[in-house]
């Protein structure tokens, strides 16, 4: 296990998911969904005084990629980073078709 975290940029994250999910077209950017909750928490001040204060808690609920209708500075073109594979074509000099007759 690595001693430091493995970190990727948002563009790298987007490219990884485009490849992982086998996406071949469209403009895609990172997507994050956060949850917001509130709670009362005890806050300790440097003077040693503790007071209860309202606080907000932000949690990461989902992360992914979403498609955009047109390119933006955050999007990647899936057709460029993960082009659709070309179909295999028979090589020249391979087996001949049986339907053609020789003269």
Explain what this protein looks like in three dimensions.
- There is one protein chain.
- This protein is mostly beta strands.
- A hairpin with a 5-residue loop joins strand 1 and strand 2.
- It is elongated, with a radius of gyration of 27 Å.
- It has a three-stranded antiparallel beta sheet.
- The chain is built from two helices and three strands.
- The termini are far apart.
- The protein has helices at 10-20, 78-81, and strands at 27-44, 50-68, 76-77.
- It is 15% helix and 38% strand.
Write the layout of secondary structure elements.
Layout: H1 10-20, E1 27-44, E2 50-68, E3 76-77, H2 78-81
Antiparallel strand pairs: 1-2, 1-3
Q: What share of residues are in beta strands?
A: 35-45%
Which percent bin holds the helix content? 10-25%
Distance between the termini: 68 Å
Label the structural class: mainly beta
Instruction: List the quaternary state of the chains.
Output: single chain
Structural Rg: 27 Å
Poorly predicted segments: none
> Major beta sheet, specifics?
3 strands, antiparallel
Strand order of the largest sheet: 2-1-3
Morphology: elongated
Mean pLDDT: 90
Number of extended strands: 3
Strand/helix succession: HEEEH
Treating each run of at least 4 consecutive H or I residues as one helix, how many helices? 2
Which labels suit this protein?
103 residues, mainly beta
Task: Give a brief rundown of this model.
This protein is mostly beta strands and 103 residues long. It has helices at residues 10-20, 78-81; strands at 27-44, 50-68, 76-77.
